[in-house]
Amino acid sequence: MTFFLQLVISGFALGMVYALVAIGFVLILKCSNVFNIAQGHFVMIGGYVGYTFLVTFGLPVWASLLAAIATAIIMGLLIERLTLRPLVGQPILAVIMMTIALATILEGLATLVWGGEYKAYHGVLPTVTLQLGELAIPPEMTIGLMVSIATVIILMVFFRYTKLGLAMRATAEDEQVVQSAGIRVTTVYALSWVIASVVGVIAGILLGGVSGVMIEMNTVGLKALAVALLGGMDSIGGAIVAGITLGVLENVAAGYLDPLLPAGGGLANVFPFIVIIIVLIFRPHGLFGLVEIERI
Amino acid sequence: MGLPGGTFSESYGQDMAIVRTRAQWAMLFAFLIFLFSCPLFFSDRILTIMTIIGITIISVHGLNILTGYCEQISLGHVGFMAVGAYTSAVLCAKLGWPFWLALPCAALAAGFVGIIFGLPSLRVKGFYLIVATVAAYFIIMWVILQLRDVTGGADGMAVPRPEIGGFVLKSKSSWFYLVMIIACLATFLAQNLVRTRAGRAFIAIRDNELAAEVMGVNLWAYKLLAFFVGCVFAGVAGSLLVHYFAFASPTQFPFMDSVWYLGMLIVGGIGSMPGAIFGAVSLRLLDELVTIVGPILSAAVAPQAAASLALIMRGLVIVIFLIFEPRGLAHRWEMVKAYYRLWPFSY
What we know:
The structure holds two protein chains of two kinds.
Chain A: H1 2-32, H2 39-56, H3 61-84, H4 92-114, E1 130-132, E2 135-137, H5 139-161, H6 163-173, H7 175-180, H8 185-211, H9 220-231, H10 236-257, H11 267-282
Antiparallel strand pairs in A: 1-2
Chain B: H1 12-16, H2 22-36, H3 38-41, H4 44-69, H5 77-93, H6 99-118, H7 127-146, H8 148-151, E1 157-158, E2 163-164, E3 167-168, H9 172-193, H10 197-207, H11 209-215, H12 219-245, E4 247-248, H13 255-268, H14 273-300, H15 305-324, H16 328-342
Antiparallel strand pairs in B: 1-4, 2-3
Helix pairs in contact in B: 4-9, 4-10, 4-12, 4-13, 4-14, 5-6, 5-7, 5-12, 6-12, 10-11, 10-12, 13-14, 13-15, 13-16, 14-15, 14-16
């Protein structure tokens, strides 16, 4: 039982990070109808940027976080302006291929700048030990959990109470109405990319603090896809619930089934995809997504 | 249509014919003769590149039918190639089947796996389907890794040289002939398939799914048919690939290759047969360029420059084509042809 609960708790902490990545994904999707395959690559870049500021430059944690966020803002703005703006109104394949191409370029840049090697910065981020009876949340995960929760709360306040947040939600609803109300849709698009890239970079630093950074870190983007699908593509609350669900399920399934499988299992890596197929066949609009009605 | 002046269609058959004029027939035969005499005057290195291009063309044709004509975007194409590859590898290496029997089995196996993973396409489309195909790729590769006793897992397995009628395909030129014959057949089949009832149904589904259904196109059957046909092409290509290298391992089927195949369609021009060929040829040549330039750059700049050059190059090509020429090289080619046909009057 302790083993089970331990798996659940570390899954919960992991799931929070998934949710963070998935929120960036859902945000861009809601505002500009772009499926951002490169979301996982933002995470990877975030991890490397965090490494650069924390270890190479030796900045304190708060300064590195601010510097990383500034980098993320510039990256988001550049990507939106240079590559996605020309594709407004193009078919879905073009947009998706664009984000995949972006992902490839980001991967190439990371290889060039950081050598594509494994970089560790354990112990640089502050650790907090939380003890619940016999159970312990791994100390390096606690900080991730707390930062994720804080980020999610900030985002929710932003969407509910600020003018820009409301503009973004309105854009998600109907672009034409928003334009006639005098809101610049391009600004909203740019902002959605900036937020997604900032959220991705934060997740990258958190994950990097737990397990180090490497190029393969971008696969977290694919897991975020599964999370977004499960939660319903256009629901931020759904992304959080689904992120936690998937993190827990993945951890528990891997913990119990991996020893039984030949070739060392590796179930944690395929598990999200099995979830994807099942969700797509039985509940294509996810747990909290809107059901689309189509007309000719 | 890019036809010279004075070419009139007097019957439906003439109107639908692919090769219309004598000049076109002559050019077709000249091209085929040139293609099949290549081993006489090209080195083994160039033949290798051409063989790989041929295998790529077969696979891209499948993807073109599935994605270009039926708009069922698949990012798991390499996974289906792996199914075909491992089917024929296991049949030949473990059960001792002859190659000519294993190849159709590989194609069918890939086709049926394609149908299974095409099932979500009946309920979802667009991005959701893409995710389902990504999932298909990862599940297929995971299963291949888990079936270590049969497939050799991550270590891979040796595949015997194929033998057709007592003749062992070992030399580069024999492989060149085999692959080119199959590639020509694949092009012929693909071009003709999209002109049949099924092909028109695919195009109707691509243009508007609901409208197609209202017209009486059986979405269920035709979407699965598109998956089946597309994956059969992939299976043949995968089988040829592992037999060519005489080795099968999961590293031959990386996920990013699926993306690269879609990139070929975009660069070449999606939804056209010449486009598939243009894309496969040009991007494979680009790959070759990268393998030549990469080491030079690595020595000059940094050791990781070669790997990053390959990635950045691939991404940039797709970005540039999407922004500046979304209809691909095939469209460019038509423009060039029209220019020469109409010269000196550009209208």
